[in-house]
Each structure stands twice: as C-alpha cells, then as structure tokens.
From TrEMBL:
Chain's gene name: purA
Names of the cofactor(s): Mg(2+)
EC top class named in words: ligase
Binding site for GTP: 12-18, 40-42, 304, 330-332, 412-414
Classification via Pfam families: Adenylsucc_synt (PF00709)
Protein name stated in the entry: Adenylosuccinate synthetase
InterPro entries xrefs: Adenylosuccin_syn_GTP-bd, Adenylosuccin_syn_Lys_AS, Adenylosuccinate_synth_dom1, Adenylosuccinate_synth_dom2, Adenylosuccinate_synth_dom3, Adenylosuccinate_synthetase, P-loop_NTPase
Residues annotated as binding IMP: 13-16, 38-41, 128, 142, 223, 238, 302
Length: 436
C-alpha cells in the first residue's frame, strides 16, 4: 500500500487540512513532515471548527495515528496548548507520535524572529514571528536542539549554551536587547520532557514498518509550493521545503514508496505576508473574495491578500511536485461573479510569458493577462456530483484542469467535510493524465 503526499499548490491556505480530513478514514498514519506552528489548518466537522497549527489534521480522525516528522520544528509551548485544547473538546490525542530528530523552537528563536523583522524595516519578509526561520537556521548551522536532547539534561545545557553564545552577542550588541539566561532556558525546555517521553519514537522506523505491513501513510505538507525555500518566491518564503520532495526528507520515507502526490489549489489565489503577487486585487473584487472566502490567516489573524486564479503558478506547481491529482477548493466563493477571470499569461515589460518567469525581477514586474469565463449565480454548496454543478461552474473547472495539465479529482463547494464533490478516487493508482 502507498505513501501519499498532500501539497499546497499556491502560497498556502488552500484547504490542505480539509483534504487530509477527507482521506482520514482511508489512511492509517498522517504525517506532518515540515514547518511548525506557522502553518495552520482549519477543519470543519459537522459545523464545528478546529484550528490546528502544529498537529496534523489526521489527529481528528479516530483510528489514525498522527505523526510529527523529523522535518518539523516544534514549539513545545504551542504543542502543549494545542493538545490541551483538543483534549478539552473531546479529541483523543494519546496516539500522537513525535520524531526524536525533530528540532525545537526555543524561546530565543521567537525573540530573534521578531527583532530581526523590525530591524529589516522595509525589507521585512512578513514572518509570523513564531521563531520558525531562526530554528531552521540553527538546524542547518548545526546549533539546533532536537527533541531527543530534552531527555539528557547535560547535553541540553551544552547545546543551549553553544547556541546562546552567538545569539546573546547579537541580541545585546546589535539589537540592544537583554541577554537570554542559559540556565533558565535549559530548565524551561527540560520541563516538557516528561510530557513528551511517551510520544517520542523513531518515526522513520514507525512509518516504514507501517508501509511494509500494507498500511497507508499520508504526508500532509505545511505551507505550499510557492513558499518553498528553493522553488518559491524567494526571499518571501518559509525556511523549509514544503514541496513533495521535502515530504520524503521530512518523514524518512523514500521517494520510491510514494505513489500519489495530491495538489491542493483554491479556485482563486491568496497570500499572507509580503512578496510579489501578479493577480492581486486591491479593489472591490479583492474585498469580495476576502469577505466571502473568510480569508483571514489561522495563525496570524491577518487578512489574506486575494486575487484571481493564476494558471502559470499551478502549471509550475504540477511540474515541481509531480502532482497525480488536484483538489480544487472554495469553488463556491466565486458564486455570483458575472465573469470570472483566469490569468493565462504574464506581460513582463512587453514580453509575453506563458510559463513562470525565471527571475524574481521578472516575476515582480509581471502583469497578468486574463481570459474570462462566464460565472454562475446558483448556490452550489449542496452539490455532491459534477452533474449537479451549473454548466458555467463545470466549464470553469474543466478549463482549470486543461491549463494545469493535471486532473481535478475533488471539488470543494463549502467549508464542511461533507461539502465536497468526489470526481476520482484520490488514493493512488497508476499515474494520471488530464481527463476530458
């Protein structure tokens, strides 16, 4: 049985949590392979909303083992709060498993994240301030603290001291801040050891053994393709690889064991934070999409920037991730728009681009070239088959599929788990080409 990857195809907030939840009853393990509590999911079950920031959405499905993989950076305070919140709402979190190799977001990472953003001024990236970037910097710089270090007080103190030797110099001499106390930080981190001990395992062995037994493992990527540190709109990106390949690295599952890669894409485009956004709407239509789509960041509470669907971005995401299927979300938000634009090319200083420009400069100067499709006014939230959709909505979906070069296998028509049209089976079979 397969390993399956779910990846956001745009800048995040596409509805990956709902897609994971939809597949929950068909899988045995759901893994978060990258990111931290900067990548929130909203899942609505029978009208009840759950906002998850660090835990994989699979934790909401009984019988599924949720796993935080080695590629995640874990804020222990946020993890504790989220577990307590779910427990209070009747969700059993006892099956949660955490990689011993996952890195820790220490309190000083959050401090550095915030002061660095302020220091950058106009060049600020628009981070969540949760310390994710600094934690990944320490990981790559070999100054990181891993979950397993919390079970050895001596090792932990040495690592905290090593990390703070550099950071305290920065905080005091560059940012005019107080020094962080080594002993206080060590004790704070050690206080989580007893809670974590039953959850921490060798998740690489756990997941590969599950695949050997014929069980299904779903990897639920945080953030999205265009926030990937290598393939996204750098430097306005996250500090990990939320593309499909990064899911293998962040879980310890080899690429030959992945049989399906599902891309999640909104019927329009949104973005949180700074950076270029060719189809962004700073008019009444942008306000319409923001209001009707409820476009507010789960983690930040910031309104999301909104724009029309960008076909060039999705083609690029299909290529980079090797998508076998797409899940189109929030189609219902477009109801009531007389003509719905689709960006099919960019005009960059008089040159027409039908694929993503090679350079950041070109992308920054890209002007969208649109084609328009007739809209629909009918309420589609109750539709459960493609045939029930208005003809204009069916044509819009078909056109997006053609432009993507990848079949659309499910369509979201509302926030609830049940408000989904299943077009094709999302669990993997042979590789798929575009359907008619």
């Amino acid at each position: 049985m397969p390993a399956v990857v779910i990846v956001g195809a745009q800048w995040g907030d596409e509805g990956k949590g709902k897609a994971t939840d939809l597949l929950g009853e068909s899988v045995d393990y759901v893994v978060k392979p990258n990111g931290g509590n900067n990548a929130g999911h909203t899942v609505v079950i029978q009208g009840e909303k759950f906002e998850l920031k660090l835990l994989p959405a699979g934790i909401l499905t009984p019988g599924v083992t949720p796993v935080i993989g080695n590629g995640v950076v874990v804020d222990l305070e946020a993890l504790t709060e989220e577990i307590e919140m779910l427990t209070a709402r009747g969700v059993d979190t006892s099956s949660l498993r955490i990689s011993a190799n996952a890195h820790v977001v220490a309190p000083y990472h959050r401090t550095l994240d915030k002061v660095t953003e302020r220091f950058l001024g106009k060049r600020a990236i628009g981070t969540t301030g949760r310390g994710i970037g600094p934690a990944y910097m320490d990981k790559v710089g070999r100054l990181g603290i891993r979950i397993q270090d919390l079970f050895d007080a001596s090792i932990l103190r040495q690592k905290v001291e090593g990390a703070l030797r550099q950071k305290n110099a920065l905080l005091v001499k560059l940012y005019n801040r107080r020094e962080v106390d080594i002993d206080e930080t060590t004790e704070q981190l050690l206080s989580y050891a007893d809670m974590l001990r039953p959850m921490v395992v060798d998740t690489t062995a756990l997941l590969n053994d599950a695949l050997d037994r014929g069980e299904v493992v779903l990897m639920e990527g945080g953030q999205a393709t265009f926030l990937d540190v290598d393939h996204g709109t750098y430097p306005f990106v996250t500090s990990s690889n939320p593309t499909a390949g990064g899911s293998c690295t962040g879980s310890g599952i080899g690429p030959t064991r992945v049989d399906g890669v599902i891309g999640i894409v909104k019927a329009y485009t949104t973005r949180v934070g700074a950076g270029p956004f060719p189809t962004e709407l700073e008019d009444e239509w942008g306000e319409f999409l923001q209001r009707v789509g409820g476009e507010v960041g789960v983690n930040t509470g910031r309104p999301r920037r909104c724009g029309w669907y960008d076909a060039l971005m999705i083609r690029y995401a299909v290529r980079v991730n090797g998508f076998t299927d797409l899940v189109l979300t929030k189609l219902d938000v477009l109801t009531g728009i007389e003509e719905v634009p689709i960006c099919v090319a960019y005009d960059v200083d008089g040159t027409l681009h039908h694929e993503m420009p090679m350079t950041q400069t070109e992308f920054h100067h890209a002007e969208p070239v649109y084609e328009t499709m007739p809209g629909w006014t009918e309420d589609i939230s109750g539709c459960r088959t493609v045939e029930e959709l208005p003809e204009a909505a069916r044509n819009y979906v078909k056109r997006l599929e053609e432009l993507a070069g990848c079949r659309i296998s499910a369509i979201g028509v509302g926030p609830d788990r049940e408000a989904t049209i299943a077009v094709h089976d999302l669990l993997p079979g042979p590789q798929h080409s575009t359907s008619a």
